[in-house]
Design goal:
The structure holds two protein chains of two kinds. Chain A is mostly beta strands. Chain A has four helices and 17 strands. A twelve-stranded antiparallel β-barrel of chain A has the order 3-4-5-7-8-9-10-13-14-15-16-17. In chain A, β7 and β8 form a beta hairpin. Chain A starts with 6 loop residues before the first helix and ends in a 21-residue tail after the last helix. In chain A, 43% of the residues are buried. Chain B has a four-stranded antiparallel β-sheet with strand order 1-3-6-5, with no helix packed on it. Chain B has a four-stranded mixed β-sheet with strand order 2-8-7-4, with no helix packed on it. Chain B is mainly beta. Chain B is elongated, with a radius of gyration of 19 Å. In chain B, a hairpin with a 2-residue loop joins β5 and β6. Classes of the chains: A mainly beta, B mainly beta. Chains A and B meet through α1, β3, α2, β17 and α4 of A and α1, β1, β7 and β8 of B.
């Protein structure tokens, strides 16, 4: 059934997660009248009950000569309480170096603990703190896809919609930005298997998005076709900068700029982006990234769509 | 991997199919249209949402440029529609603010303006 030895392990993980489906998921990212979609390359600024399945990407690596890389990943996010959430995900990668042996396997299992610091409805502003852990030894470290050491990345996320601009700003009010900045440090400073120092890295990114749903419902209904009214054109940037313990490694920032579009539906969204390397060390040519993302809170509002512990926030009587 | 993804995706879709079709209530359209200019003053504002609403927790108000309410008071909520009458209003810009609670307890909110006359 599985071509790779990690397959049964991940299958077991999936089975382990199944009970969540029958017990209790998040409200996805609404802040006032603003809806922040789940972005493909970076994370949105809210805890949530959601499932990204799958996220698929194709790219040419920054190696010389470049290898072709396929990544397929899945991630489940679940609220524990109204403001505390956890995510678990993994990625299967296949790397085809020109003329060399094909490498494939799972990366290290990744978990993220997140806490919602702030949601300001009037200013469409959200802040989130997270701790990302990539668990060393859980991936295909023998092929270099996983690592024998773990990585910890405390991360700050934010989102800001511009609906609070003056009315005169018109269509500009449909813009929003999100961002994240994290400091990644490994649990070892030197990797004895590769004989290289393991750098500490600043992991940062941002998105600029234009919400057609927001334009239609908050600014001006242009009577556009429904398909258009569900689109959020977006540009994401995902970057990494080595900042410490980088002896013998390249010091330059790597990453991609990703223009694309997200179609937002009632129960799910679909996103497609091009991935443009920022320099030669980040890859060659334009890659692509696609994702199907399910809103578990809307799909299962009385079960998975609720926090695991404690009740969801009670409905409030409207007060103007 | 493809098999695994297939299994999980099928499971989610199957579970979704057996769940009640409920979700966040988005504003689908409004009368007068969001951001529109109408030649004559409307007698009511009608909001149509993408989901059915809970009447007790869903409401709308309409204010003029000075912030004074120009709606007739209590909104009528039926299914996915919320309707509120207006007092006699003249040319100007009016803001509609709404809160909605869909029948599965998801809350949404929003506001927009419309204009009466040639403004």
């Amino acid at each position: 059934m599985f071509r790779y030895p990690e397959g049964p392990r991940i299958f077991a993980l999936a089975l382990l997660l199944l009970p969540f489906s029958f017990s209790s998921a998040l409200a996805h990212c609404f802040v006032g009248a603003r809806f922040f979609p789940a972005t493909l390359a970076i994370d949105d600024p809210c805890v949530a009950d959601e499932l990204s399945l799958p996220t698929v990407s194709w790219s040419k690596t920054g190696d010389v000569p470049s290898a072709t890389e396929w990544d397929v990943s899945a991630e489940l996010s679940k609220r524990i309480t109204e403001d505390l959430g956890i995510s678990i995900g993994d990625t299967w990668s296949q790397i085809n170096p020109p003329g060399g042996p094909k490498m494939a396997g799972f990366s290290d299992l990744e978990t993220t603990l997140q806490y919602q610091l702030l949601k300001n409805d009037d200013h469409e502003f959200a802040m989130l703190l997270g701790l990302i852990a990539d668990w060393g030894g859980t991936g295909a470290s023998q092929s270099g896809i996983g690592t024998p050491y773990s990585l910890l990345t405390p991360t700050f996320y934010f989102g800001k919609g511009f609906g609070d601009l003056p009315e005169e700003a018109g269509w500009l009010r449909a813009f929003a930005v999100t961002g994240e900045v994290g400091y990644q440090f490994p649990t070892t400073s030197f990797d004895v298997t590769t004989g290289a120092f393991v750098p500490q890295v600043l992991a940062w990114g941002a998105s600029v998005q234009y919400s057609m749903p927001y334009l239609k419902s908050e600014i001006q209904d242009l009577q556009l076709p429904e398909f258009i009214n569900h689109l959020i054109p977006i540009v994401e940037a995902q970057l990494q900068t080595p900042v410490a313990n980088n002896f013998g490694n390249s010091p330059i920032t790597t990453g991609t700029i990703n223009p694309g579009v997200i179609w937002v539906g009632t129960y799910f969204q679909v996103g497609v982006e091009a991935t443009v390397p920022v320099n030669r060390a980040s890859g060659t040519g334009v890659g692509c990234l696609g994702q199907l993302h399910l809103y578990l809170d809307d799909m299962f509002p009385t079960t998975i769509g609720q926090p695991l512990l404690g009740p969801a926030a009670p409905p409030r009587k409207p007060s103007f | 991997m493809r098999t695994l993804i297939g299994i999980l995706f099928s499971l989610v879709i199957a579970l979704a199919a057996t769940s009640a079709a409920r979700a966040h209530a988005f504003l689908d359209h409004a009368s007068p249209l969001v951001g529109s200019t109408v030649a004559s003053a409307p007698h009511e504002v009608v909001l149509t949402f993408t989901q059915s609403l809970e009447p007790a927790f869903s409401s709308v108000e309409v204010t003029d440029g000075s912030g004074a309410r120009v709606d007739a008071g209590k909104a009528a909520v039926s299914g996915s529609t919320m309707q509120i009458g207006l007092k006699a209003i003249g040319p100007g810009t009016y803001r509609v603010r709404w809160h909605a609670l869909s029948v599965d307890t998801h809350t949404t909110q929003g506001s927009f303006t419309f204009h009466v006359g040639g403004q």
